[in-house]
Amino acid sequence: MQEVVLCAAAPQTPGSGSGAIVLHDVQTGTSLASFKQSNSGPHCISFVETRDGQGGFILAAQQEKSVLNVYNFQKDQLAFKIILPEKPSCLAVDTSGTFCAGGTSQGRIYLWEVASGILYNSWDAHYRRINVLKFTHDGAALISGSEDAAVSIWSVARLVDDDTQNELPTPYCTLSDHTLPVKDIVCGLGAFPTCRVLTASLDHTVKLWDLSSQSLLTTFHFPKPISSTVWDITERLFFAASLDGSIYQVNLFRQRTEKHAGQTIEAVGGAGVSDLIRVADEDSNSRKCLITVGQPITVLTISLTSSLLLVGTSTGLIHIYDIASHQLLRTISTYKGMSISHLATMLKPPDLVGHISLSLGLGSSADAKDIIPMRPVVPFHRIKDSKLRDAHEVTMMLPVQDETPGGIPSAYDYPEADFQRDYAFFVQPNAMSTSEASSARVASLEAEVENLREQLWKAKGINDVMWETAVRKVMTQEKREAVVED
């Protein structure tokens, strides 16, 4: 498995040139594939990985246009364009690729089903421009952050409910503790609403929220306005970046030494609205957690191994830092003069154009679509249509159960012989095979039964002797007593 970084570069001035979406090897920085004709701003690109026997896709909303570009990993060309009802300001697709949400500068949100193009809902969610949209990891909720400083949580089940289509959607909850525009949102792991959420704002704060209680856990205050943030997958720490090139590392756990218990690890914050943690430049401990890039930062992401921090800048550079030491390992400088608008890490798609996996057994890249068919993406509807919604059908690919010639073996296909061999290997490492192990076990049990049978006969003989002795003793005693009485 090879980890790659998906990055998007756009002209610093909209309309002054053409950008691109490129996949790089995260270890070497080598370009693996490039998708042209894309100019996307921050939070305007979303993708679904290739998995479950279906090819992934990339959706890229174009700057200053009501156009959505669709790409797939099997071709380096634009698949097709989708005309949207309005110019999008941000975009999000859930991890399963079922729903796509788009926000606008007027504060409106659109929700489509990807496989059918049905517009399930559109509503005025905020008073001002929507800067960022994020789905929770289970796709059950949509989170929106706006220029009006509010963060709203929307239940997807309620948004697609037929019975509420004529009603204005109401949020599951609204997080309204920020005082300036919200610029970034990161959702932690876990099913909605048990997950936690980080929100970054220009009011110099990053706030940690608990969705199950709809409450604020902790506020982290920084010296500079925060424009982007990224959270370690284990939720041990997060990074917050400002436009002046400063990156702050905030550890969510700390070590404490107690007199009797010794050193213990405790969580940072969690006291609620009144809990304010200040992160200062002049603090010696803070300097250890500060990375100075020296260029305006546009986007952050962390590698899948949680060992590398990737930083995109407005000058077109991608810096890769070691998280443990904050050492700059390498810089990808392919996009000088442009702005990095998107960064994300993923495993290299097995059907990636020019890098088709040998395990698929394909003669050429043109055969990839026959083995890994594309996940269905159709043009999105621009208006709500109840008749189409009632009559629409969505194609679905069931998981492959058996290996077919030239096909992909199912992840659940585990032959009986292989299972028995692996079981014997772990349970009885010294056994040569399952049959030999069974034979040895049977022989051992038969020997044990024979031994028990012998012990039983010995015990029975002893019991008989004891019984005869006792009977004789009693009869002799009774005869003596009878003679005495006579």
List the helices and strands and how they pair.
Elements: E1 3-11, E2 20-25, E3 31-36, E4 45-48, E5 57-61, E6 67-72, E7 80-83, E8 88-93, E9 99-104, E10 108-113, E11 119-124, E12 130-135, E13 141-146, E14 151-155, H1 156-159, E15 173-175, E16 182-187, E17 196-201, E18 205-210, E19 215-221, E20 228-231, E21 237-241, E22 246-251, E23 253-258, E24 262-267, E25 276-278, H2 284-288, E26 290-292, E27 297-302, E28 308-313, E29 318-322, E30 328-332, E31 338-347, H3 368-371, H4 386-391, H5 416-427, H6 434-485
Describe this structure in words.
This protein is α+β, with helices and mostly antiparallel strands and 486 residues long. The protein is built from six helices and 31 strands. The protein has helices at 156-159, 284-288, 368-371, 386-391, 416-427, 434-485; strands at residues 3-11, 20-25, 31-36, 45-48, 57-61, 67-72, 80-83, 88-93, 99-104, 108-113, 119-124, 130-135, 141-146, 151-155, 173-175, 182-187, 196-201, 205-210, 215-221, 228-231, 237-241, 246-251, 253-258, 262-267, 276-278, 290-292, 297-302, 308-313, 318-322, 328-332, 338-347. A five-stranded mixed beta sheet has the order 16-17-18-19-25, with no helix packed on it. A four-stranded antiparallel beta sheet has the order 3-2-1-31, with no helix packed on it. β18 and β19 form a beta hairpin. The longest helix has 52 residues, at 434-485. The radius of gyration is 33 Å and the shape is elongated.
